[in-house]
Amino acid sequence: MPSNKSVSAAPITQFINCRILRDHRLQREDLWVREGKILDPEKLFFDELGYADERVDCENGIIAPGFIDIQINGGYGIDFSQPSDDVDGGVSFVAKKILEHGVTSFCPTLVTSPPEVYHKVLPRIKVRSGGAHGAGVLGFHLEGPFISAEKKGAHPEQFLRTFQPGGFQDLMDTYGSLDGVAMVTLAPELSGSRTVVRELCQRGIKVSLGHSVADLSQAEEAVQHGASCITHLFNAMQPFHHRDPGIVGLLTSDKVPAGRTVFYGMIADGIHTNPAALRIAHRAHPSGLVLVTDAITAMGLPPGRHTLGQQVIEIQGLHAYVAGTQTLSGSIATMDMCVRHFRQASGCKVEEALEAASLHPAQALGISHRKGRLDYGSDADLVLLDDSLNIKATFISGEEVWRTGP
Amino acid sequence: MKLIILNDYDKASEWAAKYIRNKILLFKPGPNKYFTLGLPTGSTPLGCYKKLIEYYKNGEISFQYVKTFNMDEYVGLPRDHPESYHSFMWNNFFKHIDIRAENTHILDGNAADLQAECEAFEEKITAAGGIELFVGGIGPDGHIAFNEPGSSLVSRTRVKTLARDTIMANARFFDGDLSKVPTMALTVGVGTVMDAKEVMIIITGAHKAFALYKAIEEGVNHMWTVSAFQQHPRTVFVCDEDATLELRVKTVKYFKGMMHVHNKLVEPPPSEAKI
Question: One GO BP annotation here (chain A) (predicted)?
Fold first, then answer.
């Protein structure tokens, strides 16, 4: 082993023969990694007189930051919101499988559930780093139960809640604990939400607006109190109206405080959002677009009928139907599919499509100083793609955790 | 002296790169026998570096057993400033090839004791056994490295104050702001380059034509420091047509008439045939 490393004796990996996504463009550069972080090779060269111990030939592929899914309900037959005795096993199983979609970290998402489910599930899943065992867990995304009955979507109505006069205390009573919670989706029109939004933001938890009938001024007020995201834009909110554009209007609002960006989740599976709507959102506010899968239990299962909980689901292509009907039961798109579809449907540049699944979700979660970029010092969570944006390999902390077959 | 005249900048760069390649190959460097190469910065050698990188990527040469010594560096400019010569060498050459950092030498313009840094640089060259091939470019005023007009032709590595013209010319790299342009540099001396076993000067473009004329058709003169190499036993000037505009027709014809001989110097050496 070389003994010339003055800063660290850890081995250094150099990814060669690649184009890397840095500063919003693909650049022909090598990528250097040490101790799971992206290394400045010029500093290594001049300050440490160091060099690479191992080289990985990327065969002229693209290296992008690993994808981050901030809204995924489950997959491969597992529903994160079902309180089984092996919640952790279920999350771990999905975490491992989504490596092949280029996802290196994610927010397991719980839909509206009774308090006992939160009390049981939340303590069992800890924020943890990714690795060969699976994608990293960044914290829960709690979607509900403080949402609008009118826009509940598939959330069970009997468990919906409003904020009692206690406001934040009611939220704490419902969830039990906020340890390991990264994001909460709520409806800002619920009375008492202003305090709750502020309290959550003070604790570093991101507030996303969704499943809501809020008008634009209510949405703007929530943003002024700290809300920073919109949950699956267009879905489960007031449709765009020119005299009150509703939550959708946040994309071009002039009431968003200077220096802040409102992010919005987008299910770009070609089914849940019409491509024209996707283009409207993208052209109005490209820097806030966050690709989410919003994947359900059926994601990753083969075509055919599957019994999931109380439901029978039939998978045909990219559609998951309630068996025997034409009712969509949720998204089963994978993140890499969403990236490809978004690029094709919006006509955006490769860089933009990749950033919508990496940089933007990292920014939405407030972790872009360590994830979502290939800057020096960032975590070396990487995805290697071909020019059609098919995943060739996935790396976490610089270690290969998945590679496509030959 | 050899004067190599090529049609244009690209051809001149390629010729220079092939010459360097062949020198390294014929030297047969190894762990106990390093090839020592002096290197310039600036726009002139860029094409030559690109070609050398290409030869490395093709597997024609390796820099594993090459030691490099750079001509100069600004004083007081942070090493990672995009205009520092450290950054230049990293971005345009070192990061693309297999050279080890410990074998590269660039003057430290941020050293606490600049004079000591210069003396140490001379000692490193001596310790490496002197320089086999020093590659250089020149300014329109005929300066080699930062040996501005009037520099001693026997000078050694030292601190130099830059000429007003040079500072003005460099301002374009510093947002056009004269106050940001470094005013001092560390540079090898004319004598330091003269000590190399061989010197290759690349001169391209019509704006360097007068300097080339001064370099080879007039006498040795410290106002055109590059003219010092008239007294070096092995100097190669590589230029393009544009750079010959101020030369006599007789000079150009004489050297062009010898190109068929000189071109043999850049043919792939026999040892390469095995690849």
Answer: N-acetylglucosamine catabolic process
